[in-house]
């Protein structure tokens, strides 16, 4: 049986540390970190994420602001709100919950956010900083994966890492984070030929494809560290990852469960980026 990586516990540890640092920041410099979230439309999953972020802010002692806008909100109106938040001294970080409705250009929205306040780490400035080896705000989900590997003292240097999925929010930033730590990184996607042959090379295998249980046991190298980013709801209502968990347990040395693995780390890293933003902006 592999060691189960407990993302829920690590996320709580990180939040406890952030709560302490927030208290100190308040006491020593009078700064209260502020995070704002903008939600356009009424996508149920987005509503759950936004509620989670608000609760997490309250738990660690941050100021939180929320903007709930109707789905027919114009891009201009949204850009106005972003402009206001860029100038708002109480708010050190903010994000627009994605996806936004189709009539709004996601790129235009992300690029309008002041990179210092882009705590999702999606602005091209922050992406560029990461790719040039001098990261500022890092994308939260891949940063959460790195945090899990570090807290479990899993060696990264020199390891063969394979990522399945090349999205802008998970796969691509994770390439750089693993590379920065001296892993040999391979990225797979829908056009990869003979996926099992590539995944079987992985000493660290990250599944971020959004395809329920697509990584079977025979695609995993013996002793691999298996990180499952996928969150997929089956017709039965059951939540599963991209990895066939029971199968993978026959091979892996470490594995993240779904739920309770990578998922809880994303908000923890968002809080950390916001705390960092508050410490730097108010210097
Ligand atoms: P995405 O759809 O933007 O990207 C998926 C990537 O996987 C693409 O690059 C695609 O080429 C690749 N892919 C898809 N099917 C494949 C296949 N059969 N073989 C090889 N490659 C394949 O998805 P995303 O936004 O990166 O999210 C991926 C998964 O991670 C989803 O299940 C999502 O819900 C989950 N997710 C979880 C968190 C979290 O835990 N906090 C955050 C973000 C995403």
Features:
283 residues, alpha/beta, Rossmann fold, 6-stranded parallel β-sheet, 3-stranded parallel β-sheet, 10 helices, 11 strands, 42% helix, binds nicotinamide-adenine-dinucleotide
Largest sheet: 6 strands, parallel
The share of residues in helices is: 40-55%
Q: What's the CATH H-level superfamily name of the largest domain? A: NAD(P)-binding Rossmann-like Domain
- The tally of strands reads 11
Form type: globular
Low-confidence stretches: none
Number of helices: 10
Q: Assign the CATH architecture of the largest domain.
A: 3-Layer(aba) Sandwich
Q: Span from first to last CA? A: 49 Å
Strand adjacency order, main sheet:
1-11-8-7-5-6
Structural class: alpha/beta
Overall number of structural domains: 2
Alpha-carbon Rg, integer: 19 Å
Average pLDDT score: 97
List the helices and strands in order.
EHEHEHEHHHEHEHEEEEHEH
Instruction: Provide the CATH topology of the largest domain.
Output: Rossmann fold
Cofactors, ions, other ligands: nicotinamide-adenine-dinucleotide
What amount of the residues lies in strands? 15-25%
Structure notes:
With 283 residues, this protein is α/β, with parallel strands linked by helices. The chain has helices at 7-29, 44-60, 75-87, 106-112, 124-131, 140-151, 171-180, 195-199, 245-249, 263-281, and strands spanning 3-4, 34-40, 63-69, 93-96, 160-164, 184-188, 204-207, 225-228, 232-233, 239-240, 254-255. It folds into two domains: 28-114, Rossmann fold (3-Layer(aba) Sandwich); 140-263, NAD(P)-binding Rossmann-like Domain (Rossmann fold). It has ten helices and eleven strands. The strands form three sheets. It has a six-stranded parallel beta sheet with strand order 1-11-8-7-5-6. The radius of gyration is 19 Å and the shape is globular. The mean pLDDT is 97. The structure holds nicotinamide-adenine-dinucleotide.
């Amino acid at each position: 049986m592999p060691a189960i990586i407990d993302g829920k516990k690590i996320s709580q540890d990180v939040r406890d540390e952030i709560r302490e640092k927030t208290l100190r920041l308040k006491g020593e410099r009078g700064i209260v970190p502020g995070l704002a979230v903008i939600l356009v439309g009424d996508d149920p999953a987005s509503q759950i994420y936004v509620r989670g972020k608000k609760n997490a802010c309250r738990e660690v002692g941050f100021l939180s602001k929320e903007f709930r806008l109707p789905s027919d909100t114009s891009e201009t109106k949204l850009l106005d709100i972003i402009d206001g938040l860029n100038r708002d001294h109480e708010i050190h970080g903010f994000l627009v919950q994605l996806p936004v409705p189709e009539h709004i250009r996601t790129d235009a929205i992300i690029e309008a956010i002041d990179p210092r306040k882009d705590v999702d780490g999606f602005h091209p400035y922050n992406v560029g900083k990461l790719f040039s080896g001098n990261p500022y705000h890092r994308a939260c989900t891949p940063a959460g994966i790195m945090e899990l590997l570090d807290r479990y003292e899993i060696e990264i240097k020199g390891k063969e890492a394979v990522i399945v999925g090349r999205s802008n929010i998970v796969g691509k930033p994770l390439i750089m984070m693993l590379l920065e730590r001296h892993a040999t990184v391979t990225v797979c996607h829908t056009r990869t030929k003979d996926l099992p042959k590539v995944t079987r090379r992985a000493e660290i295998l990250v599944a971020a494809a959004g395809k329920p249980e697509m990584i079977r046991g025979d695609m995993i190298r013996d002793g691999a560290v298996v990180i499952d980013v996928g969150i997929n709801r089956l017709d039965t209502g059951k939540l599963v990852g991209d990895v066939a968990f029971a199968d993978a347990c026959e091979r892996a040395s470490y594995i993240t469960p779904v739920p309770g693995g990578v998922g809880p780390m994303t908000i923890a890293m968002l809080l950390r980026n916001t705390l960092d933003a508050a410490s730097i902006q108010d210097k």
